Structure formats: structure tokens, C-alpha cells
Amino acid sequence: MTWGLTCQHMQILSHCLNGNRKLETEKELEQQRQMGVGEGKLPLFETRVRKGRTLYQLYALSVLLSICMILAYRALHIPADGEKGRWAWIGLSMAEFWFGFYWILTQSLRWNLVYHHTFKDRLSTRYKDNLPGVDIFVCTADPKIEPPIMVINTVLSVMAYEYPTEKLSVYLSDDGGSDITFYALLEASRFAKAWIPFCKKYKIEPRSPGAYFKEASSGPDDGLREWLDIKRLYEEMENNINSVANSGVVNNDIRKQHKGFSEWSGTTTPRDHQPIVKILIDGRDGARDFEGNVLPTLVYMAREKKQHRHHNFKAGAMNSLLRVSSEISNGALILNVDCDMYSNNSETIKDALCFFMDEEKGHEVAFIQLPQHFNNVTKNDLYGNSILSISEIDFHGLDGYGGPLYIGSGCYHRRESLLGKKYDQTHKLELVARERDYKSTSLDLEERAKNLITCAFEDNTQWGNEVGLKYGCPVEDVITGLSIQCNGWKSVYFNPRQRGFLGIAPVTLEQVLVQHKRWSEGDFQIILSKYSPISYGRNKITIGLQMGYATYCLWAPCSIPTLYYAIIPPIYFLHGISLFPVASDCWFLPFAYVITVTSIYSLVESLMVGYTAKGWWNEQRIWLYKRLASYPFALFDTALKQIGIAKSAFVITAKVASDEVLQRYNKEIIEFGSASVPVVIIATVAVLSPVCLIIGLWRLLVVQGVGLMGSMLTQVIICGVVTLINLPVYEAMLVRQDAGRIPAFVALISLTLSYVAYALPLD
Fold first, then answer.
1. 475-486 CB burial, b ≥16 within 10 A, e <16
2. Which residues are part of a known binding site?
3. What are the residues facing 417 on neighbouring strands?
């Protein structure tokens, strides 16, 4: 393969490369014990297949049969030419075909669930101090949207991992190129001297000081005075950072504290600045904490930005980190986390190493993905942020077919797999400690690293294509993970009992819809690109994994049949036109069965994974809102990009909100609060359903004198469910007076659009 790299690029790539691991069943493990195999040969982890799936498989087959019967009914009972409802009928047939097809795809996520358990004690006994270096990447982009105090809490949490500190290096990529973020990291480097030994001495969790002091009302009994001192130091640091962040200026007194501030001049802007690399703590030179222990290496990086150069968003930052870290520490293992996703479990590095360093199968593993959880989800998960069905079900199902997706945060990578190396089963790559450059000074390393993150460095190379994270897609993480799996590697989903990472979830409806638009748009672009799991993954990954990828890649197209089903049956019910079988007809049974059984299963599954009953209902509401008011825009924007009218963009989800908004969020009051097009769509559908229900029932019961058990029952159910699910919308329109309500003119627009829908002539 032609890499198209200069001599310097080849040296960097060569400098970056090197790995190991094994998957075991309980039966094989027991056989090994009975054979008297020594501790050095026992697996470092075991895999269990979820039992009791026969009942689920019978349920799935019954639903599949009912779906087939529904499609048969649609095909056999198409209204004749000229008969009212013919085209609506055909549209429903197409929508139901899509729902059936998509449901089949989702079965790949539930057919073969597997779970892993690690043996960290065996890892420690077997490898002792012969562990590989770990480089941790934290990415931030805008100190106004991602507060510096939040960022450094994440940095401090990963600096305090239970791992040899001389083998730990933490890198902060600042795509905002902000001296405020640099100042925050400088403060964190000082506080770390007290924080890290305190964490390890008292074994505290979590190791984000902000999260820890928020949860802990008092310190350990044998260290209360020390706890108070550490808390005071943290509050001083927090006040200093917030004071500078709020003022937006780093004053001259602070600038004198470190020569690194000389990088920022009056002409430096977030979109136009030189490359910056500053080693704030050099783990090679014996930098010590207050207890005399070696500190982890800590590095600030801001890659060069020029307004006329495309910087490839987070993927570009990650690739820059790959090159800079290869020059400074060159860890064999890489962990990347979002700046709001702090470590909640200080042992996850050792968990990951149990997979990578297992003697039998470790060499096959490219990355270990941990779930994303959030520390600010309300009791009943108002916006469905916890995505427990994905973290507790879907990804375990993907793991049964070769591994989960790479989702961009909370993921441990083998360095060489990120750099494009293909898996070779004839050549096992050992994940071993690598020699660091102890001869060069910090200044020398900084200067060499700067040359690797200029705008021109990647020109005429394969970075972003065959090397590093992929460019050209808003979800660069997903296509990168898919490419790695297609290179022959496997991935593992590890869901520890103590959650590995905790982040900040959106607290307004608008933030949720924007976030899901970005995800669904990026996923849909994948299936239309050369990286489509259907074509690109053919004969490279399992069919089950291809189906799993397609489930997420087809989120956006699901919006069309959902919109159709939410609008057309109610309108036709209002006009007295039936689109479903009579309740007494045998053809009604498959409709009733699918609606009833899938709803019950969804509720039971949600309760099992940790939702409340109200949380499940909130999840159904957000599921509808995403398909009505988020995914359609993802579909539309993707179409514009395909014909060259628009370009890809990366929208950062805001991590800050006003106190008033947070108060409503904690009370589980939905934040509408704007006159945006998505809110207009939601309000219009919400108004349309009760209008159709009331007028339709009046026509049905009073005018025609027909009972509910006639041919309109299914349409009554659809109108009723959509009306019930939108009760918060009616409250926001008619009752609420706070800033999060739906503006009056939005309600007027929705009423007008509902009337237009009613007045339109039907086929």
C-alpha cells in the first residue's frame, strides 16, 4: 500500500506503532482449573453469554410473523382506483414495510448478548511493574461552551488513576487555542500535587475533585484535617479559574507565572494561531507530588489554525494528539475522553489491560469501549439522556457479533490500530512498555512536537484516510471504529458495575434535538459513503455487526414513516376514512398484537435496565420528538451535502445553562422556550391529534352513531397515544408562564397549520 508519506511522516508513523489478549468461556476456564493449569496461564477475563434468550427469540419470531401478516393485509386490501384513502393506504403500507425492515435490523442488537468480567488481581500478579505506558487524550474546543473548570476536573480525574504515574501521560487538546484554558491547566498541574496523593491514600471515588466534594459532606475519619485542606485548595483553584473565565482576560500578573503565556499575543485568535505545545509536568525529570511520588506527564496542545484551512474538527485534534504523544511519551495504549466525561472508576485502565494483555486473544483486540453515563440525569430521565437501552442492551448485543462501535469517548485504543495497521494473526503484537526519550529536554520535545501539528503537516499524506481518525464525517469516531474492525481487529464492550465515566447530559429540549441531529446526520452519511457497513463491511465483519451498524445509520430515514404515521391516520380519522381493519376482523389481530406486545416488552426491558415507569414514558416522548423534529433535518441536510449545496459542520453541545433552566430541569419540566422550527413541528403534531380525536369521535359517536369497535379503533388509539404523550406541550402552551413555555405565536402557528392540514383535500 502506498502511504504517500514523506520521510519525516514515515519516522513518526514508525515511532508510533506496537499490542496483546483473550476471550474465555466459563466452561473453558473450569477445564483449565481441573487440568491444574498454573496462574500464569489463566485468562485475564471471561465472557458469559446471556441465558434465557429462547423466550425472547420466540417473542421475536411471533412479532415477525405478525409483521408479515400486516404487510399481507395491506397488499390484499388496497382500495380501488378512485376510492378515498387509496394513496394514504399505499403510504401506510410503505411506512409499515420500513418499520418492519428496521425492526428486523434491531434484532441484531438483542439476539446474542455477551458480558465480560475481568481479573485484575491476575494482571497485577502476572505483570507486576511490566505494564505499558498509557496516553490519555482530553479534547476541548471552546471555553465559553465548555467551562475550563469542568475541563480540568476531567483532567485531574484521569491523572489520579490507580496506575504507575511514570507510565501515565495526559494530553489536553485545546481547539479554541485559549490562554484561559491554558491557565486552568496550569492551575490543575499545581493542585495535582496535593490531589493525586490524597486520592490514592484514601482510595476515594470519583477522582474528579468537583464531583467528589459535591458528593462528600465530610472526609475520611482518619484524614478529616487533610480533607479540609484539600477542599480549601480546590475551592481556591476553582475561584481563580472561574474568575479568569468570567472576565475573559488573563491579566499580566498571571502571565508572569509561566513562560507559556508568551504564545498568546494581541493577534492570536481561536481560528488563527501558531501551533502550541507546552509540557506542564514532565514525568521524566522526576516531578514530584507533595508525598514525594512521581507525577504523570501533563501536556497542553493547541494545533495550528488558519482561517483558510479546514481543520477537520475533533478528528483533526485526535490525529494531532496521536503525533504529539508519539514524540513525547509514545504510550502503547491510548484513552480518549470528552472534556465533560470525568473518570468515575480509577481501575478501568487495569480492566482494559485485562483484555489487551490476555495471552490467548489479547492480540486481536483494537479497542475497549466503555458506556457513556451522565451524572445529571433526572430521576425519570426527562429527555431520555441516559440511553440505557443502548448501554445495557444494544452494545452487549453488538459485542456478541465482534464488538461495539467506537463512540468517541471512554475508549481505550491500541495505538497501532488507530494508525491504520491491519490485524495479522500470524504476527502477535505484544502490548509492552516502550522506551521514552530521556535524552531530549522538554523544550526540544515541544519544538519537535509543534512541527507535527502545523496546518501543512498532513498535506499529501494519508492522515485522515488510511492513518488515524477518518475525516469528512460528523461522526468520525464511528467510521474510524468500523474501519479498524474491517482491518481484521476486534473490539470489546466493557460495562463495569462501577461506571467508568460520567458526563453532562443536555438540559433543554433544543440541546437534545441538536445533539441527535448531529449523530443521526453523521450516521446517515456513513451509509451513503464508501464506509457503508453494508458494502465496506462485506466479508470483513459479521452480518450481525453490519445490521447493528445499519440500525444507527438509518436513524434519520426513520423520520419519514414516523411523521407519516403521526399525521395521516389522525387526519383521515377526522374525515371519517378508515385506514385499518375492523376490530372484529381477524386481520385486526396482528395490528393489536404488534402494538400491545412490543409496548409491553419495551416497558419490561426498560424497567429491567433501570428506568422508572415514568422514565419509560418520557423515553417514548423523546423517541417521537427526535423522529419528528430532529432526524428530518438530518435527512434534509444530508441530501443537501450529497448534491454539493452544503458542507459538513460540527456543532458542540453546550455544557452550560442558566440557574433558571437548571431549576426547571431538576423539576422535570421540559424546556421548550424558543420559536424554532423543531418546536413548531412538535406543537403542530401535538395540536393536530386532539383536534382530530375530538372532532372524529363526535362524528363517529354522535353524527354516525357508530361504536368505537368499528374500523376506526386503531386510528382512535393513534390519536389518543399521541395526545397523551404531548400533555407537556399543552401545559407549555396554555398553563405555564415561565421562560421555558411555548411562545404564544408558536401555538398560533401550530393551530393554523393544523387547520390547513384539515382543510386540504384528501385523495
1. bbbbbbbbbbbb
2. 146, 175, 314, 338
3. none
Helices 543-553 and 509-527: angle between axes, nearest 10 degrees? 130
Q: If DSSP states are collapsed to H, E and C, what string results for 411-472?
A: EEEEHHHHCCCCCCCCCCCCCCCCCCCCCCCHHHHHHHHHHHHCCCCCCCCCECCCECCCCC
Is 231 buried (19+), middle (13-18) or exposed (0-12) by CB count in 10 A?
A: middle
Length of the chain counted residue by residue: 763
Question: What one-character DSSP code corresponds to residue 408?
Answer: S
What DSSP letter does each residue of 502-517 carry, written as one string? EE----SHHHHHHHHH
* β-bridge partners, 34: none
Q: Residues comprising the binding site for UDP-alpha-D-glucose?
A: 146, 175
Rounded Cα distance, 414 and 134, in Å: 10
Alpha carbon distance 202, 593 (integer Å): 56
CA–centroid distance for 657 within its chain: 20
Tens digit of pLDDT for each residue in 540-565? 999 999 999 999 999 999 999 999 99
Residue 114 in 3-state DSSP?
strand
User: Is residue 611 within 8 Å of residue 388, measured between CB atoms?
Assistant: yes
How far apart (Å, rounded) are the C-alpha atoms in residues 482 and 536? 9
Please say whether the beta carbons of 182 and 300 come within 8 A.
yes
pLDDT per residue over 464-520, tens digit each?
Answer: 999 999 998 889 999 999 999 999 999 999 999 999 999 999 999 999 999 999 999
Supply 653's cell numbers.
Answer: 453541545
Q: Please report, as a single letter, which amino acid is at residue 751.
A: L
Catalogue the active-site residues: 175, 477
CA distance 535 to 541: 11
Cell numbers standing for residue 314: 475533533
Q: What is the pLDDT of residues 610-669, one digit of tens each?
A: 999 999 999 999 999 999 999 999 999 999 988 887 666 656 666 678 899 999 999 999
Could you tell me if 483 and 356 are in contact, meaning their C-beta atoms sit under 8 angstroms apart?
no
Omega within 30 of 0 (cis) for the link into 148: no
C-alpha 673/C-alpha 664 separation (Å) is: 12
Residue carrying the nine cell digits 433526572: 378
pTM score: 0.91
Give the residue carrying C-alpha cell 428506568: 611
Quickly count: other Cβ atoms within 10 Å of residue 339's Cβ.
26
- SS3 letters across 66-101: HHHHHHHHHHHCCCCCCCCCHHHHHHHHHHHHHHHH
How far apart, in Å, are the Cα atoms of 573 and each of 511, 563, 714? 34, 16, 10
The C-alpha cell that represents 632 in the structure block = 428530518
The answer to whether the CB of 175 falls within 8 A of the CB of 141 is yes
In 501-567, DSSP assigns E strands to 501-503
Q: How many CB atoms lie within 10 A of CB 643?
A: 7
